[in-house]
Every structure is written in C-alpha cells, then in structure tokens.
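Supplementary Note 3. Input sequence used for the single-chain structure prediction.
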Amino acid sequence: MIDLTHPRLFTPLSAAKLLPSRLGERSHASLIERLLKQSSSPRCAVTGMPLPMSGGGVAVEFTSTKAAQANKIRLGDLQLVDEWVFWSRHVEIALNEEQGSLIFMPWVSQIELLTLARMLHIGRQLAEEKGWGMMKETANLHLEKLTLLGDDSLMINALGLPDELESWEPEEWLSAIRDLPMRDRKTYMQKFGQHVRFLPSGTTEGSEQTIREWRHAYELNGDPQETLSASEAFYKDVMVKLKAYERDLENQRNTQVAESGSSA
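The predicted structure, written as discrete structure tokens, is reproduced below.
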C-alpha cells in the first residue's frame, strides 16, 4: 500500500483515458464491474480501504506507465482505487473535471484529509435522514471551513505569489509550475507547493448515492457524532497554526520592508 501524504499534482494525461468522460458511462461501469468480480472483498489498490461492490465511488487506473501507453486497454493492466484517492493522485485531471479544489492545509496528510471529509459527508447525510439538526449543522460548518482554506488571499500568500494578484487560479498555477525548469520546480515545490492538499467536492452528480454506499462498505467504523465532535478540536488546532503562519509571514514582510528602507 502507498502512504498518501501529499496529492499528486501532475500525472500523465494517459490516465484520463479511463475516465467515464472518455470511455463513456456504460463502458466505464462495465469495466469496473468486471474488475470488482475478481474479488469477494475488493479494496483500494492504493490505501487498502474497502470498495463498494456496487461500483459507486470506485475509479480505475493503470497499474504502470507502460500499461497506460499501450494502445489497447487490458484488464490485467488495471487496478481499482477509491474515487477520491484517484482524484488526489491525478489533481490536474480532477480540476479539469471539476471534482474538487486545492486548499492550504500542511498540518495533515492527504489521506487524513480524505478521511475527515468522508466522515463529514457521511455524518451530514446520516443527520439529514435521522433529522439530527445540530449534527447536520456541525458537518456543514466544518465542510465550509475546509473550503475556506482555499480562499484566494490565503492561497496567494501561502504559495508565495505576487501580492497584487486579485485571484488565484489553480489551473494557471499548475501550468506555471509545469513550465518551470526542473531545478526551479523542485525548489518551489519544496518551499511552497508541498503545503497544498486536494479537497474532493462531495457534491458532484451521484455523490449522494456514493456516500450512502460508503456507509455500508465501511460499516460506519467510528461514530459520526464522535467524529464531528472531535473535529472541533481539530479545527481549532488548524486555525491556531494558520494564524501563526500568517504572523510569521507578516513579520517576514516587515523585515524585508525595513531592510529595503535602510538600504535606500
């Protein structure tokens, strides 16, 4: 299994060959169905988490670069992965397909963010069905807070972009990084790029049914109510670290302004 600590921003465009938008919905569903039948308890090839037997929330990817370059798609060259894990490993494609967004969240790993977001969506859906108003409100609040960590001004500061920028466009940012010389790209990613995480949408077509199937596949490991309550402390910790980061950034700017003034 792979430890998914960071999202993978750039992947070969050949990975898009297996998307429903390329294969067609029926062919894509048929491919996943055939792969699911190969195991009585299918699991994500990357994380080992259980996959719904219905195929909901399941994606397919090539097992290797060589397999992706072949002209013909062979069943033996494919593996099943959790849909959110797939998008996290193919961010450039995910953004093009409007499947999520990038946020500033260096204090948790990519897989931890996926787990948290998944439990929040499960908790919200369960609360809607049970009529648990406070639980639904809490889940919505936390999901909104996660989204706000992708705010334009925050991302511009966190990614070392020019202050005069009024908005941050993730697709343009990725394109600019791709165009950098290899050495400069590595330096930039180590200093800034490693701080981003991929936040799946959770509101795309079919997501409600997928979330319901996750509830059965995971057998609700962990009480959603406890997860939502524990996330209060999690968010407080995130916000404390975010404020500390902003203070450090402001101090660095003040120092640079002072040094610039003295040299003049």
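Strands lie at 58-62, 78-82, 100-104, 196-200. The chain has a mean pLDDT of 85.
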